[in-house]
Amino acid sequence: MMECFTLYRGIQSGVLSFMVRGLLWLPLLAVFIWLAWAGWNEYKKLEAYRVWAEQFERAKYDIYSVLGQQGSELTWGKPTRRGPVLVQTFSLLQVRSIQLIINGQATDLTSLTSKESGDRTIALAFELPSTTVQIPFTERALAVRWGQFLQVYWQSLSLESQP
After folding, report:
1. Averaged over 97-110, what is the pLDDT?
2. Domain boundaries, the chain
3. CATH numeric code, 1-163
4. What is 49-66 written as a DSSP string?
């Protein structure tokens, strides 16, 4: 009888040990499932952006915004899995000034190309007659390149429109 009890106790501790190990791996499984979902979600955003961006001469994607340029028209919005939302379009012909905004401060577009440790918010600001449009960026260098390109393009449009 003692042998049966010892055998039963051994099986019981083995099952408990298996259950404890399973419970320890459960959070790892949850993290893996969440990572797979996040990756799939980002993939769907990129695919929706790719389709959206085909209509533009020049386009950019980052987690904060999408931006497309077709001639003097700029179109931007927020990326989602189903395509950009809150899409706005304006003409560079209406723009009065273009500025790089870093942490709420206007910054010179010509001197900054590297990321500094304090960059929390980065945006290109376009001053229009009735409002200012701020397009967010994740990287300072990308914002500077876009800002420099658009400023040169905007200035060339201004020169063409003068008699």
Report:
1. 80
2. 1-163
3. 2.30.29.30
4. HHHHHTTSSEEEE-SS-E
